[in-house]
Amino acid sequence: MNEPSAACSVAMWLAEPLSTEVQRVIDRLRRLPDARAVAVLPDVHLAADVCVGVALATTDCVYPAAVGGDIGCGMLAVAVNAEADFLASPERAAELLSELYDRIPVNKHRCPQEMSSELRDGLLSADRLERLKLRDGAVQLGTLGRGNHFVELQRDAKDRLWLMIHSGSRGIGQAITEHHQRQCTDRGGLPGLAANETSGQAYLNDVEWARRYAAANRHCMAQAMESLLHTHDITLDWSTLIHCDHNHVAREQHHGEAVWVHRKGAMPADEGQPGMIPGSMGTTSVHVTGRGCDAALRTCSHGAGRKLTRTAARQRSRRELLREMGHVWFDRRYADDLREEAPAAYKDLRTVLRAQRDLIRIVRELHPVLVYKGR
Q1: Is 9-372 a domain of CATH 3.90.1860.10?
Q2: Domain boundaries, the chain
Q3: In 3D, which of 265, 233, 201, 229 has the Cα closest to residue 73?
Q4: Measured between alpha carbons, how far is 242 from 238 in angstroms, rounded to an integer?
Q5: What distance in Å separates the CA atoms of residue 241 and residue 93, rounded to the nearest whole number?
Q6: What's the pTM?
Q7: Please, which pLDDT band fits residue 48 given cuts at 50, 70 and 90?
Q8: Tell me: the pLDDT tens digits for 281-315?
Q9: 108, 128, 158, 164: which is closest to 280 by C-alpha?
Q10: Which of 33, 90, 274, 304 is deepest in the core (most CB within 10 A)?
Q11: What distance in Å separates the CA atoms of residue 69 and residue 248, rounded to the nearest whole number?
Q12: In this structure, are residues 176 and 136 in contact, taking their beta carbons and an 8 Å threshold?
């Protein structure tokens, strides 16, 4: 077993004790030969190879598993020029949910979508990825995806509505990850790529393209929601836009050294940087600003974090989900399919926020009014 790098620090902000399995993953990261720092956030939970809710700083190599498959996955929030009573009637909520299936498909659009020149002409490192971009990338631009991705209308303390969207780079982000993982070699406990070699530079190039694609994907969905709301003479206040991603690797300065910071389900939290931390589809979310904590690699959690595995959550009943959702509008026809995303499947957000109060400041609390999720 590799010995930990002498210069590698591990800092933790925990909402609950680490499981043995999560601790084992953290130990493997800190033993990477070029690891300099590991930050463990309070939404940490198991995922493939590297946990969600972790930031890793390295000097020489980049590790696709420490970014994850959904490169550029992140969130967008923008205020709506309407109050929450706009959705007071079941008929209007049902109409809006029905329209969302057409305006924001879960999987793909019927026809290719117009891609900006930045995306259309952006170079990916393999011909296969370029073909996939033009085929699948064009029909998935402006689509939601499944799992924990969502479109929500939320209300703040003044009963103003806000839009929040959580989604990423869809199938092409996963294809990019799988392509580059095949180029990886073991770097002392985790497959990686030398950042200064051709294979590492190709991965970094594709990561940046996927981040742009994911950001455009969320923006397209926000525009689709605005188009839908226009039929009710409602607009979005784009001056309030908050937009960030939480699956990436970037070159940054930390502790006087240039390092590669990998964030997997971990949100940048520089001093004053705006962001958002959702709870679950039936509970409070918050808008925040970062405190720039260096020990945390200027990072905070990206959500509440799973408490139950998807398998365990599916063992719970439909009735339990309906009770937990209360008066939040969602498509109840698909309640059985959405049990794995039930509020009880996630950690308590307030506990998670208390655990990282030296990483963020809370700007506003929001409560879900209408939730649209893939099944």
Answers
A1: yes
A2: 9-372
A3: 265
A4: 9
A5: 24
A6: 0.96
A7: confident
A8: 999 999 999 999 999 999 999 999 999 999 999 99
A9: 164
A10: 304
A11: 10
A12: no
Length of the chain: 375
The tens digit of pLDDT for each residue in 108-161 reads 999 999 999 999 988 899 999 999 999 999 999 999 999 999 999 999 999 999
Cα Rg, the chain, nearest whole Å: 20
Q: Which two tokens stand for residue 162?
A: 């806000």
pLDDT in tens, 68-118: 999 999 999 999 999 999 999 999 999 999 999 999 999 999 999 999 999
Query: Are the C-beta atoms of residues 367 and 307 closer than 8 Å to each other?
Result: no
Residue 145: both structure tokens together: 């995806």
Encoded tokens for 133: 């971009």
Q: Which strands form 236-245's sheet, in the order they lie side by side? A: 236-245, 74-83, 160-167, 150-155, 360-372, 285-290, 274-277
In the block, residue with structure tokens 């720092």: 37
Cβ–Cβ < 8 Å for 140, 172:
yes
Band of the pLDDT at 1, cuts 50, 70, 90?
Answer: very low
Distance from chain centroid for Cα 238: 21
3-state SS, residue 217: helix
- Give the tokens for residue 312: 């365990």
